[in-house]
Write a structure and sequence with these properties.
Length: about 130
């Protein structure tokens, strides 16, 4: 019981990750493209992002296989200073490697403020792999 109370207190104080108010999270545009060379890659694809809100210090990337959502592909974070995109290989992750057929993959990109504790923007993009 005591552990549950400590976890609840930490969550209320913002110690368990980023905080956000759904009304203040700006929508962002996210775009990327797969090539067959991305199969099982560990270097991230290149991304184009738009609508990144002022005050963003970091972009956090996360990939999810929508066909096998329990598989952790990971992602990464990059410093943000207003550039149009994020170059290929900016972070390491577990690239798309479906055992058979095509899977749909969703990238979520979150804009994090300079405090590192608040999500101020979010965008998503979904693509099938292998690309058709």
């Amino acid at each position: 019981m005591r552990i549950a109370a400590l976890i609840a207190a930490a969550a209320l104080s913002g110690c368990l990750g980023t905080t956000e108010d759904a009304a203040t999270v700006a929508p962002m545009g996210v775009d990327f493209a797969w090539t067959e060379a991305d199969r099982c890659a560990t270097a991230s694809p290149a991304f184009t992002v738009s609508g990144v809100p002022a005050g963003t210090a970091t972009l956090r990337f996360r990939m999810k296989d929508l066909d096998v959502p329990t598989y952790n592909h990971g992602g990464g974070s990059v410093d943000w200073s207003g550039q149009d995109g994020v170059p290929q290989g900016a972070f390491n992750y577990k690239g798309p490697c479906p055992p058979s057929g095509a899977h749909d993959y969703e990238w979520t990109v979150e804009a994090i403020d300079a405090s590192g504790g608040t999500v101020i923007g979010r965008g998503k993009a979904v693509r099938a792999f292998p690309p058709s």
